[in-house]
Amino acid sequence: MAKTEITDFEKRLSRIDRIHEAGGAFEASGALGRSYFDSMRPKARRGLPLRGIALFLVGAFLLKAAILAQIGATEYAARVDLMAQGNLAQQLGGWVLHADAPTRYLAGVIGSIIH
Fold it and tell me: Distances from the Cα of 39 to the Cαs of 20, 22, 26, 29, 49, in angstroms?
């Protein structure tokens, strides 16, 4: 009888050890235990920073519009055409900097403010 009681007790101890190793345990009410600190851990962030990409694009449009408003449409178009005839990096820059509809609209708004 004593042998089975010891075996049961050892099984119970090993089960409790497994629970503790897995992070589970009894927490008294009001205590700052593992569940509190797990809930305070920062949440996982998204893989793609959408807000940063959106702010970058808005900033790029505003910069293009400010340059277009400052130097004028004909000079801007001439400079972009000159870039489009350069090497691959300059051609890419010319494609990015071309005066599209949002850029022209923003340039009109910015031009009315700065002139």
Answer: 19, 17, 17, 16, 23
Domain that holds residue 55: 50-114
Please indicate, yes or no, whether residues 36 and 54 belong to a single structural domain of this protein: no
Q: 32-83, pLDDT tens digit by residue? A: 776 677 777 777 777 888 999 999 999 999 999 999 999 999 999 999 999 9
Give the 3-state DSSP-derived string for the chain, with helices as H, strands as E and coil as C. Answer: CHHHHHHHHHHHHHHHHHHHHCCCCCCCCCCCCHHHHHHHCCCCCCCCCHHHHHHHHHHHHHHHHHHHHHHCHHHHHHHHHHHHCCCHHHHHHHHHHCCCHHHHHHHHHHHHHHC
Q: Does 87 map to a domain?
A: yes
Give the whole-angstrom CA distance, residue 54 versus residue 58.
6
